[in-house]
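USER:
Class, as today's exercise, take the chain set out below, and explain how the chain folds.
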Amino acid sequence: MSEDSASNTSVPADPSGVAAQVQSRLSELAGEGARPVSLSLDFGPACGEAREGRMEAWIDRQTRSLAFVRARLSAADGRMIAAGSAVFARPAAGA
């Protein structure tokens, strides 16, 4: 696992906001022009409770055409708020 970023962040109160926040971070990590192929999102016990958290995101693996990325949003006490993984199609070189 290659750790690419970790940052403190405000956490939305509703699960849909949390989902959007995690998906946005996964998209950023995959890179400009990358298109989602699949997305999996799991919510933890701190979802809806924590207002501050820590987002960790990393690239599991990359090929010429795909990026496999993961993110985890945790509360200050370490409880999981949400975790996501995604596969993104990367744009062809020169496209």
